Amino acid sequence: MDQVKRICILGGGTAGWMTAAALSNKFKGLGFEITLIESNEIGTVGVGEATLPHIRFFNSALGLDEKFVMKSTNATFKLGIEFCDWGKIGDSYIHPFGDYGLPMPDTEFHQLWLREKAERGAPRLDEYSYSVMAAEKGKFHFPGDDTTQIGSNFGYAYQFDSSLYAKLLRSYSENNHVRRIEGKVVETHLNAESGYVKSLSLENGAQIEADIFVDCSGFRGVLIEQALETGYEDWSRWLPCNRAYAVQSESRGELLPYTRATARKAGWQWRIPLQHRTGNGHVYCSDFISDEDALHQLMSTLEGPALTDPKKLFFKTGRRNAFWSKNVVAIGLSAGFLEPLESTSIHLIQEGITNLVELFPSGEIDEYDIREYNDRMELNFDRVRDFLLLHYVATQRDDSEMWRYFRNLELPESLTEKMEAWQKRGYVIPYEHGVFLPPSWISVMLGQNLEPKSFDQRVNKIPQEELSNLLRSIHTQTHQKIHQAPAHAAFLAEYVKGVHVAQDNAAGS
Ligand SMILES: Cc1cc2nc3c(=O)[nH]c(=O)nc-3n(C[C@H](O)[C@H](O)[C@H](O)COP(=O)(O)OP(=O)(O)OC[C@H]3O[C@@H](n4cnc5c(N)ncnc54)[C@H](O)[C@@H]3O)c2cc1C
Questions:
Q1: Is the pTM of this model over 0.70?
Q2: CATH for 6-75+160-234+318-382?
Q3: Which SS3 state, helix, strand or coil, does residue 60 take?
Q4: Which of 26, 28, 78, 167 is catalytic?
Q5: Which atom of ligand 1 is nearest to the CA of 186?
């Protein structure tokens, strides 16, 4: 094969249209032909409303205006995730998209706080986090430019209607000359010699040829699995939840700038506030609860009347043995699935796209690029897995069969090391790759009562009075800034006021 110029994306869910939008933007004017095939009859998974801050960079790289995206997708701002009942029943903490305190010259801020707490007592670490405090008070404003200042060292994401997001990216892609074909792929033809995918046959008899295929066909993995039989690494022993019910309900109460994840006896429940409705779901493990009870758990705890029938979803946690195999790259649910506890799926789609663009073949498809791509994506998946598992094992809960199951579980070594380093002296082993930075780990470990025994000795260089004054000053400044910030709902309404959105991409669908 010569130069890779014909790209075929199979699937028109969030993964497919994100891929189409990014490739059509990055390769504009370079003579690529991009085709996307989707089947209305099969449809999309239809969930996935909470995101991570990185999506803002994805949108801005496409040149999309934030106000327009938010209005088009009924989005709200998201400062983090509130975890209820995870450490113990009755506990609650927020995992913020931001730092604690301020950057310190020698060590991290939380180390100063550990010493102060040990020697004189101190308020919660959360009280020094602008984003936790803003979330708790239901406030929002944009971070300032100087990240050494309180009120600037945080990020934010969105909670949005992902089907409207895919719709928006579809019109963006079509304007960038992506050819969309509606139809069902019924057969995949392989090159007898190389094993590469040569073409796809649609139900109506049409044949689609391409040089490279991006498999965004969802859990089916039509190309990566059904055609190439790449295999799946099953992580159910670590993350045993395998089903979910999802339902939309009328909004009630204040419009909160965060997602909520409440631990339950056999899984956990999400609550995602959008401008016009609330998304809800119960993720559970079928070994520990019946479908009927799982559904009852969800429906009996909705804050407002249901707007849709509950949708049941099945999944197996894990990832493909290879994300890129021959001339097929799997992005989205076809690449693997990790439960949505930390809203990581759309982020992993973004990672897949970024790495594909970076490693896109200049001539023939190259084994080195494939290996590099797979190594990077493996690391991303493995690290998300560890972070999710932390929520289930850093806990004192043993009130149900599921929580007792985690008590006896052998953990991945990478997670054990991370937890041990933290418990010894509050150290979070940093990663070169991987989405969650030390503040995220700190929030979950402290939030779930995993306290370090000691702290970084360099903190002892600071005279005690100076340390106490510094902490007091940061605490006061944080609270003053929060006091001045507007309420999230008012800020959002003002921000998207007057933004025009075409009727077919209108809010409220
Ligand atoms: C319970 C649950 C909750 C989730 N919550 C979140 C969240 O809060 N945040 C987050 O980031 N992610 C979340 N996710 C993940 C998120 O939903 C997905 O990552 C995202 O929607 C991408 O899905 P996809 O595009 O890969 O697959 P899909 O949406 O399933 O799309 C697959 C596409 O392939 C097409 N297709 C399949 N087979 C064929 C064929 N033979 N011929 C033609 N077309 C075909 C379909 O028509 C469709 O267009 C959640 C997932 C689940 C299960």
A1: yes
A2: 3.50.50.60
A3: helix
A4: 78
A5: 41
